[in-house]
Amino acid sequence: IFIPSTEGQIFKIIEGRYNQGRTNSELFLSCFNEEPYSMDRINRDPVSLDHPAITMLQFIQPQVIEEMIYNKDLAGNGLTARFMYVFPRPMAGHRTVDDIPMGTAREEYNEAITKLLNMNSGMDTGVVLTLDKDAKESFNGFRELVEKMLGNSEISDARKNWLGKLCGLCLRIAGVIHAMRWQDAATITPNIDSSAMESAIDICSYLTVHASYAFDELGVGNTPAEKEAMFILQRMEHRLLYPSPKSPISPNEKKLFSMQELYQAVKGGKRGYSMEELRFGLEELGKRCYLSTFM
User: Fold this and answer.
1) At 188, which helix (H) or strand (E)?
2) pTM of the predicted model, to two decimals?
3) CB 166 within 8 A of CB 204
4) Torsion angle of C-alpha atoms 244, 245, 246, 248, degrees rounded to 10
5) What is the mean pLDDT of the chain?
6) CA separation, residue 144 to residues 138, 148, 166 (Å)
7) Residues 158-169: pLDDT tens digits?
8) Beta bridge partners of 184
């Protein structure tokens, strides 16, 4: 089944909204690898699924993700390590008033999925995909890189749990890319080439950066100083560092801001914002090496 949402209510259900506060994640854990699932129900027939599969696409606020990641039960059973996290840059304030045409993307997607479903690929018995020599070499190089990250003592245990599933995720993505490239053929070749594998590795590298934010930075802000620092950093990014998506500052470019410039950029986000609050947050950012202050 497919569960799309812009509210993330499914996570409230998983967290136990209708189960007296007890987490209800067993089905979702089983669906990750299509493992058999069964549930006995009082006064109703039991439910048994041989190969359950769920696809979830959630367009939700970071706060919802933060609540899920910091749920000890969901983190403990590995559910939070099974998602791909993406945090696009907010476009509010930089959008055009004209509608952006969808083009033919929806039609092309529907056509591609229909072709895959109709493909005579021996799905009754299944198709085993394998890596060719070059693809396997690329994948092994990626595995070595992931293994080094798992051995990094500075990486949190939560992110390591996610990294532990990254190589398997990379293979799945490579398989999807391979299948999409063969959508116009009558059958699908079982050999995944290096091009598909390299594309999958690129996607996983992108996801790794966002997972780092989800597990190691999204929850930062528990102390007053951290909250103030995060608020200042967000205002600086939107008002000073990236005033326009078309002309962002290079990551390697150094830029100086006066206290007055910073204050004018930040104060619009809070009523009655004071220079003392700004200095308080800047001190925390300085401790974390986000910036250097000269006062």
Assistant:
1) none
2) 0.70
3) yes
4) 80
5) 82
6) 10, 6, 12
7) 889 999 999 999
8) none
- Residue closest to 138 by CA, chosen among 194, 84, 216, 91: 194
Alpha helices in the chain (DSSP H): 9-14, 26-32, 62-69, 72-76, 105-118, 133-150, 157-163, 166-181, 194-212, 224-236, 259-267, 275-287
Alpha-carbon torsion, ordered 101, 102, 103, 109, to 10 deg: 180
Cα 16 to Cα 10, 40, 47, 173, 190: the distances in Å are: 10, 17, 19, 31, 42
What tens digit of pLDDT does each residue of 63-122 get? 888 888 877 788 888 899 999 999 988 877 777 777 666 678 888 888 988 888 877 655
The tokens describing 220, both together, are 């930062």
Residue 125 has a pLDDT of 63
Residues 26, 37: Cα–Cα separation, whole Å: 8
Rounded CA separation 127/132 (Å): 15
CA dist 60 and 70 (Å) reads 16
Q: How far apart are CA 65 and CA 86, in angstroms?
A: 11
Contacting residues for 42 by C-beta, under 8 A, at least 6 apart? none
**Could you tell me whether strands 44-49 and 37-41 are parallel, antiparallel, or unpaired per DSSP bridges?**
antiparallel
Query: For strand 130-131 and strand 37-41, is the pairing parallel, antiparallel, or unpaired?
Result: unpaired
Question: Is the predicted pLDDT of residue 201 greater than 60, yes or no?
Answer: yes
- Angle, helices 166-181/133-150, rounded to nearest 10 degrees: 150
Q: How confident is the model at residue 132 (pLDDT cuts 50, 70, 90)?
A: very high
